[in-house]
Automatic annotation (TrEMBL):
<dbReference type="Pfam" id="PF02146">
    <property type="entry name" value="SIR2"/>
</dbReference>
<feature type="binding site">
    <location>
        <position position="334"/>
    </location>
    <ligand>
        <name>NAD(+)</name>
    </ligand>
</feature>
<dbReference type="InterPro" id="IPR003000">
    <property type="entry name" value="Sirtuin"/>
</dbReference>
<dbReference type="InterPro" id="IPR017328">
    <property type="entry name" value="Sirtuin_class_I"/>
</dbReference>
<dbReference type="GO" id="GO:0005634">
    <property type="term" value="C:nucleus"/>
</dbReference>
<feature type="binding site">
    <location>
        <begin position="297"/>
        <end position="299"/>
    </location>
    <ligand>
        <name>NAD(+)</name>
    </ligand>
</feature>
<feature type="binding site">
    <location>
        <position position="235"/>
    </location>
    <ligand>
        <name>Zn(2+)</name>
    </ligand>
</feature>
<keyword id="KW-0862">Zinc</keyword>
<feature type="binding site">
    <location>
        <begin position="180"/>
        <end position="183"/>
    </location>
    <ligand>
        <name>NAD(+)</name>
    </ligand>
</feature>
<dbReference type="GO" id="GO:0070403">
    <property type="term" value="F:NAD+ binding"/>
</dbReference>
<feature type="domain" description="Deacetylase sirtuin-type">
    <location>
        <begin position="70"/>
        <end position="348"/>
    </location>
</feature>
<feature type="binding site">
    <location>
        <position position="208"/>
    </location>
    <ligand>
        <name>Zn(2+)</name>
    </ligand>
</feature>
<dbReference type="InterPro" id="IPR029035">
    <property type="entry name" value="DHS-like_NAD/FAD-binding_dom"/>
</dbReference>
<dbReference type="InterPro" id="IPR026591">
    <property type="entry name" value="Sirtuin_cat_small_dom_sf"/>
</dbReference>
<keyword id="KW-0479">Metal-binding</keyword>
<feature type="active site" description="Proton acceptor">
    <location>
        <position position="200"/>
    </location>
</feature>
<dbReference type="InterPro" id="IPR050134">
    <property type="entry name" value="NAD-dep_sirtuin_deacylases"/>
</dbReference>
């Protein structure tokens, strides 16, 4: 357990919520006049926003472009591989979303209409998202646990993409892995806990909502699979898995790690995220303006929002911007993209062997776990 895993009573007044944005907010055309009549000029406004919001100003990039400094020789996967080789990257940050887990069979539970919500019809949710709202949960935790049972980690195997992240770590190149996923597959893939920031929390642990006593995955799972609501052993409180609900803070580890990590970052790899949920999506703007960013995703996402680009501020990924030498988009399946990148780095076979060995190990463990139950059944 990391030092950040301390018991903490969440400050309910923090308005940052992992699940609060559907992506439309950042693109809303907030009209900010380019030349205001109130005496505020654009440069001053830019400076103000840069300072207030931590946006990178135009300066860095214009300087880089005019001085001919390139982040990458070419903005392709080969360019990234060349950069990794030359730079000897050891502070790579990976950021991941649901796209890295879909090939494991985990449904994207946040999208309505995936079928997961059908089972919940009888619970008369005021709206589908209510299931992840703390207020609703406190009144009626049942629908959440019905959904949790379907989503529960343990029956899924990490994907090739998860093992690519593990391989980056095994090679001493991974600084940190930030994930939006709550499926714990990074842990199953044995990415060390200190390298993980589970930005939207995890099913791995849970806490009593009343006394904050901590419970482990197995304890909660046992009860949830018996269709019980997990109740604290020392008080009448409900035990809620530590996934971040609407109206809850992101974990302390997120806030504690971000600044130092992104200052050190020598390559950012974004995997399977649509980059619409804040504050997670905003992480892409934090590395220095000369740090390359690679997106592996089934669509080109993360470009500057309307407001920022209108302000002439950098922000977002800039694959299509003139003079871009840092951002690369590889469009397709995350596993395919990671395998291709591994191939180009000369680790292709190693990655395949790792996936095979680890999946076999998981199968053996599952068999072992099933075996004593069978024996017990035969004896009785
Ligand atoms: Zn309790």
């Amino acid at each position: 357990m990391s030092s950040n895993d301390k018991e903490n009573v969440k400050n309910q007044t923090d308005t940052e919520s992992a699940t609060s944005s559907s992506g439309t907010g950042s693109d809303s055309p907030n009209r900010v006049p380019a030349e205001t009549s109130s005496g505020l000029n654009l440069a001053a406004l830019q400076e103000y926003l840069t300072e207030k919001l931590g946006f990178l100003g135009l300066g860095d990039e214009e300087e880089a472009v005019s001085s001919g400094i390139k982040a990458l020789e070419e903005t392709t996967l080969d360019g990234i591989v060349d950069y990794i080789d030359k730079k000897k990257c050891k502070n790579i940050i990976t950021m991941a979303g649901a796209g890295i887990s879909t090939s494991a069979g985990i449904p994207d539970f946040r999208s309505v209409g995936t079928g997961l919500y059908h089972n919940l019809a009888k619970y008369n949710l005021p709206h589908p998202q209510a299931i992840f709202e703390l207020n609703f949960f406190q009144e009626n935790p049942k629908p959440f646990f019905v959904l949790a049972k379907e989503l529960y980690p343990g029956s899924f195997k990490p994907t090739l993409c998860h093992y690519f992240i593990r391989l980056l770590n095994d090679k001493g190149m991974l600084l940190r892995h930030y994930t939006q996923n709550i499926d714990t597959l990074e842990r199953v893939a044995e990415v060390p806990e200190q390298k993980l920031v589970e930005a939207h929390g995890t099913f791995y642990t849970g806490h009593c909502l009343s006394c904050r006593k901590q419970y482990e995955l197995e304890w909660m799972k046992e009860r949830i699979f018996k269709d019980e609501i997990p109740i604290c052993e020392t008080c009448p409180g409900v035990v809620k898995p530590d996934i971040v609900f609407f109206g809850e803070n992101l974990p302390d580890k997120f806030h504690d790690s971000v600044e130092d990590d992104f200052a050190k970052c020598d390559l950012l790899i974004i995997l399977g995220s649509s980059l619409v949920v804040n504050p997670f999506a905003g992480l892409i703007d934090l590395p220095s303006s000369m740090t390359p960013r690679l997106l592996i995703n089934n669509e080109k996402v993360g470009r500057a929002s309307g407001l920022k680009s209108m302000m002439g501020l950098s922000g977002g990924l800039e694959y299509d911007k003139k003079g871009n030498t840092r951002d690369v988009a590889w469009i397709g399946d995350c596993d395919d993209g990671c395998q291709l990148l591994a191939d180009k780095l000369g680790w292709g076979d190693e990655l395949k062997a790792l996936v095979k060995a680890e999946h076999e190990k998981i199968d053996r463990i599952n068999k072992k776990e099933a075996a004593p139950q069978k024996k017990k059944a035969q004896k009785s």
